[in-house]
Amino acid sequence: MNKIRILLITLTILFTNFSFPQSGQMNSASGDETLQDLINTAIDVSPKLSMLRAKRNVAENKIPQNSNLPNPMLMLGLMNLPTNTFSFNQEPMTQKVVGLQQTIPFPGKLSSMEDAEAIDTLIIDKEIKDAENEIRKNVKEKYYSLSFFRKSIQLAKESKKLLENISDVVSTKYSVSTASQQNLIKVQLEITNISDRIEDLKSKESSTRSELNALLLREANSPIQTETFDSIKTLDITVKQLDSLSRINRPFLQGIQLSQEKGKLKQKVAEKDYLPNFTLGVQYGQRDMLQKTSMAQSDFLSFSLGISLPINYGGKISSKVDEAVSMQELYSQQYYQALQYLNGVFGTDVAVLNSLKERISLFEDGLLPQAKQNLSSTLASYQVNKVDFINVIDAQNQLFKIETNLYKLKTDYQKKIAELEFLTGTSLSN
Predict the structure, then answer these.
(1) Is 176 in contact with 56 (CB distance < 8 Å)?
(2) Do 158 and 19 contact (CB within 8 A), yes or no?
(3) Residue 147 CB-density burial (10 A; 0-12 exposed, 13-18 middle, 19+ buried)
(4) Burial annotation 240-250 (CB, 10 A radius, 16+ → b, else e)
């Protein structure tokens, strides 16, 4: 009777505990947000993006400040007023004057200043886009980590359940004196170890969920639904392709190029300072009737044209030009330095991706099936006393580690893709 009981427990272990979640299974019991929904929410609520949009508004409001005519000047005055009487009708040249002056920059200077100011808005637009891509990367990385911890908890619980069933077998064998007390203690120790592992994973899952909720501006314990990734799409991509994609799509690099273009526009504005500005004036002089002759006098109307002399005192104009040229060189070198950095990262990441892809294939096609078969064979051999109990525990631990490591490799692969999508500024999944 005891042998029959042992056999039934063993069959239960073999055929009911090797169940794995289907691809696309959701780990969270509440909520129906997809990864893309979480990304959209994080972008919508991001304080950093709000700050950058305010920064863009500041830049936009600066454009009209420097690209319009200066205010005209109204002049009021008295001319040729005799000091002995201060009378307005004593001398024929005494006038009450009202005038207006307007300074006009050399043609093309205002439009050049407007272009130089307006490009700041385009640069900030690239900052906003790059920040959005960074948020997208951060959300994906936290999401994949959260999925990994939840999958690890699930696998650990399955392993614990299997160990508990094994414990039943050992207990039954111990009751008929075919298993030692040491075996019974060993399996209980393994159950305790994996229980500790589950609690540690729960702590990490909770911490990661809090970090992801922080990106969403939600309460730390707000539920987040995650998807398991039992199958992933791998990529075949080279460093050269990544370099080309980043040059075309990366907002950060585009922003540097726009900053270099701003230097050219600043140079154009500075060179305009070598050209004169003009001041147009008009004056109206009103004269009173002379007291002595009682004759009405004609009023005077005067016009003037002033031309500024753009003398380069102390090199104040040429230094502006030199500054703009230096700015162009600065951003040019920054651009190539960024490309150099990216190429280094791309080389490392491509090597990591290829290694992860090979290891995933090795685990899926070799190690995982072998580990399952080994555990089944070991359990069957233990049932007929062909192997020691320690072999059963080793086989179970090996299967658990392989399942966990396989899912870790898959999440690491997707996190690396998310990083490359940020660095290139475009999706790599298509």
Answers:
(1) no
(2) yes
(3) buried
(4) eebbebbbebb
Tell me how far apart the alpha carbons of residues 414 and 233 are, in angstroms, rounded to a whole number.
9
What is the mean pLDDT of the segment spanning 346-357? 95
Mutual orientation of helices 316-362 and 251-272 as an angle, nearest 10°?
A: 170
Q: How far apart are CA 116 and CA 118, in angstroms?
A: 6
- Over residues 186-239, the pLDDT tens digits come to 778 888 888 999 999 999 999 999 999 999 999 998 999 988 888 888 889 999
pLDDT average, residue stretch 417-430? 91
Give the β-pairing of 278-286 and 300-307: antiparallel
As a whole number of angstroms, the distance between CA 59 and CA 67 comes to 13
Q: Which helix (H) or strand (E) holds 358?
A: helix 316-362
Token pair 């159950």: residue: 191
Average pLDDT over the chain reads: 86
CA distances from 51 to 48, 62, 114, 118, 134 (A): 5, 17, 24, 19, 15
Q: Enumerate the H helices of 17-77 as residue ranges.
A: 35-45, 47-66
3-class state of residue 366 by DSSP:
helix
Q: Which residues contact 190 (CB under 8 A, 6 or more apart)?
A: 163, 393, 396, 397
Please state, in angstroms and rounded to a whole number, the distance separating the CA atoms of residues 400 and 190: 12
CB 224 within 8 A of CB 218: no
Q: What is the pLDDT of residue 189?
A: 84
Instruction: Give yes or no for a contact between 291 and 85, defined as CB atoms under 8 angstroms apart.
Output: no
Strand partners, 26: 227
Summarize pLDDT for 177-186 with one digit per residue, the tens.
Answer: 655 566 667 7
Which pLDDT value is given to residue 338? 96
Cα torsion through 314, 319, 320, 324, rounded to 10: 180
pTM of the full predicted structure?
A: 0.83
Which architecture does CATH list for 2-69+105-275+310-424? Answer: Up-down Bundle (1.20)
Q: Is the pLDDT of residue 98 over 50?
A: yes
pLDDT tens-digit profile of 139-160? 999 999 999 999 999 999 988 8
Q: What share of the chain is helix, strand, coil (3-state, %, to 5)?
A: 65, 10, 25
Q: Where are the alpha helices (DSSP H) in 176-250?
A: 181-215, 239-249
